[in-house]
Design a protein that fits this description.
InterPro entries: TRASH_dom, YHS_dom. With 101 residues, the chain is α+β, with helices and mostly antiparallel strands. It has two domains: 34 residues; 45 residues, Ribosomal Protein L24e, Chain: T. It has three helices and four strands; from the N terminus they run ααββββα. Strands 1-2 form a two-stranded antiparallel sheet. Strands 3-4 form a two-stranded antiparallel sheet.
Length: 101
Amino acid sequence: MFGGFFRFLLYSLLFFFAYRLFRFFVPKGTKENKESVTKGGVKVDDVMVKDPACGIYLPKRDAIRERIKGETHYFCSEKCVENFKRGISKSVAPDTVSLKR
């Protein structure tokens, strides 16, 4: 009766230590997860860029990239690209921005 119990206890302890040894040598998480985490521990998917024509911010991966006069600019639409090239831009004055609560 006690032989079966001690055998079960022995196998349980062996399994536990084998698992702990495995977890010690195999890191938690993948390489991809470690690369996408910054120093602060916040995952960064993309950088926000400002459209110089209309002033909105959008993810860099979604923006239209144009090189104008040696500088790279990011736009939200083709219309903003054309407006910027023609010199038309909407500047948003700080006092016109309202924050709704």
